[in-house]
Amino acid sequence: MCTLQKRGNLFILTLTGDSKDEHRLNPALISSIRSALAEAKSQAVAGSVLITLAQGRFFSNGFDLRHAQAVGAKSGSIQAAKDELLRMVDLFKGVVSDFLTLPMPTVAAVGGHAAAAGLILAMSHDYVTMTASRSVMYMSELDIGMTLPDYFTALIRSKIGSASARRSLVLRAAKVKAEEAVEMGIVDSAYSSPEEAVEAAMRLCDELAKKRWDGKVYAEIRKALYPELCGLLGLKDEKVLPSKL
After folding, report:
1. Across-strand partners of 109?
2. If both were cysteines, with which of 48, 88, 148, 234 could 104 make a disulfide (CB 3.0 to 4.6 Å apart)?
3. Which structural domain, as residue segments, surrounds residue 91?
4. Is 203 left (phi over 0), alpha (psi -120 to 50) or beta?
5. Closest by CA position to 32, among listed 10, 49, 13
6. pTM for the full model?
7. Structural domain includes residue 155
8. Is residue 244 assigned to a domain?
9. Cα Rg of the chain (Å, integer)
10. DSSP 8-state secondary structure symbol assigned to residue 25
């Protein structure tokens, strides 16, 4: 699951669990994340910022395939397992939408592996810091025999400018370490330990909070950067003008 803490204008979203928890994205975790983001949105003020952390050695290992398999086993149907996986793909759209429309800057501190939908979760933030000590970024779909959801592809195209970097990530299923992830434009900065990655993310949050930007304006400008992705998610533009003219 996850928790949400508020320290002044800083919201801290933490994926929780023991050291072996992979934070796999099943319907329960997806719902928990969306509830936390809705709470942060409802309390947002000018200068609010959100940071996402994860306990243990994983940031997130993607969709919970074991959950889908369990649904299939319970019904005695392979198709039921496939349908449940497709349901999770559809549910996760809401998480990406929530991050795109959140009225505040967002920072992910990746202190563990981020794979498949877990990498998309990290990339849904405005900024990403990453530890070099124990983390890789990995789009595993090619290795497991699954096509990419359309909104995954749109987000990757929107966030990673280099065609060769995109090819390496999705057509070679490369396990990308922190320094290479910086070069590819997947993350903003790399650090030698998880603690340093979190500290850097916190410093960035402090810098962004001092700007005291209007959250609605920030969210609309963010959305405007990713028109293809917003179109697939059904997000519409909304004009915001200065209150004092």
Report:
1. 129
2. 48
3. 2-233
4. alpha
5. 13
6. 0.96
7. yes
8. no
9. 18
10. B
**Residues 58, 111: contact at Cβ < 8 Å?**
no
Assign residue 34 the CATH number of its domain. 3.90.226.10
Angle between helices 215-225 and 78-101 in degrees, nearest 10: 120
Q: Which residue has the tokens 């993607």?
A: 62
Domain assignment present for 147: yes
Say how far apart CA 122 and CA 160 lie, in whole Å. Answer: 13
Q: What is the pLDDT of residues 104-122, one digit of tens each?
A: 999 999 999 999 999 999 9
Beta 58-60 vs 113-115: how paired, if at all? parallel
pLDDT cut 90: percent of the chain above it: 90
Nearest Cα neighbor of 50 from 14, 90, 1 is 14
Question: In angstroms, rounded to a whole number, what is the distance separating the alpha carbons of residues 166 and 156?
Answer: 7
CA distance 172 to 142: 8
Query: What is the phi/psi pair of residue 141, to 5°?
Result: -55, -40
Instruction: Give a yes or no: residue 63 inside a domain.
Output: yes
| Tens-digit pLDDT profile for residues 169-205 | 999 999 999 999 999 999 999 999 999 999 999 999 9
Q: Which residues lie below 8 Å from residue 166, measured CB to CB, with a gap of 6+?
A: 156, 157, 160
Phi, psi of 89 (to 5 degrees): -60, -45
pLDDT of residue 75: 87
Regions of the chain with pLDDT less than 70: 18-20, 245
- CA nearest to 135, candidates 69, 213, 212, 187: 187
DSSP code of 56?
Answer: S
Q: Report the C-alpha gap between 182 and 110 in whole angstroms.
A: 13
- Looking at the 3D structure of the chain, how many domains does it have? 1
